[in-house]
Amino acid sequence: MRAAHTIPAMPNQIRIFAFAAMMVLCGSAFCTPAITIPPAVLQAVHALDPAAHIAASRAGPVPGLFEISTGRTLLEVSDNGRYVFEGHLFDLKRGVDLATLEANGWRSRIVAGMPNSSFITFAPARPRFVVTVFTDPSCAYCQIMAGQIHGYLAAGIELRFAAYPAEMGASTGNPILARIWCARNPQSTFISAFTRRVAPPATSYCGGVLTTDEAAAARLQLPGTPSLIGPHGALLGGYLSPRTLLAKLVLDATAHEAL
């Protein structure tokens, strides 16, 4: 765990019920009934980040601490609001990192909220795993990955590609991205543009798709391209060969089943 942050003393306020400040999100580390959160806990979170959105909360596994999820981040807050811990929290009995589990659930919910129309999908007849890939045609490793599509399909991996421009905010002004995602046959256009660097033909604009992809990438705060997100929300990393990706997905599935 990182060092504790000290929060200045704050005036008492009327107690706020948890259901007014958060949503209990099953599918993440939080699947418990609404509880009453001490005002000092809420004040501590907002003292660190006034814009913080409390997505879920519960009494923590350590007496005197509350677990607060802001989506990507899991905080442990003392009931008097004085101490806030941010970092890895291991449940050794279950063999799981609760902070990682919460972050995975958060990513999974964002990806699940993206419409199918926002992806260019390559799928085998019977997919074993589904991976979401945020990509850009100007990225060298994205080009390599596109050239190995058949290897991923042979491994039973379905790839769903989302547009992630090298410069955030540039998707609507990126003619290459727009022409790929808006093409009549996006799969073949994708392969031509990524592997042979063939400029796709002009097509009618479908900006809503690109805006959706870029908004999701911004929320996910991805490190770059390609960024691979597994079936359970794990950030698998950047470029991975078909064999390496399959091995990583098997490990991820095994860990998820053990929860």
Automatic annotation (TrEMBL):
Q: Where in the cell is it found?
A: Periplasm
List the InterPro entries hit by this protein, alphabetically: DiS-bond_Isoase_DsbC/G, DiS-bond_isomerase_DsbC/G_N, DiS-bond_isomerase_DsbC/G_N_sf, Thiol:disulfide_interchange, Thioredoxin-like_fold, Thioredoxin-like_sf
Q: Name one Pfam family in it.
A: DsbC_N
Name the keywords, alphabetized. Answer: Disulfide bond, Periplasm, Redox-active center, Signal
Q: Where is the signal peptide?
A: 1-20
Any single Gene Ontology cellular-component annotation:
periplasmic space
Q: Which residues form the Thioredoxin-like fold domain?
A: 129-249
Give the protein family.
Belongs to the thioredoxin family. DsbC subfamily.
Q: What does this protein do?
A: Required for disulfide bond formation in some periplasmic proteins. Acts by transferring its disulfide bond to other proteins and is reduced in the process.
Q: What is this protein called?
A: Thiol:disulfide interchange protein
Organism, per UniProt? Answer: Metallibacterium scheffleri
Q: What is the lineage of its organism?
A: Bacteria, Pseudomonadati, Pseudomonadota, Gammaproteobacteria, Lysobacterales
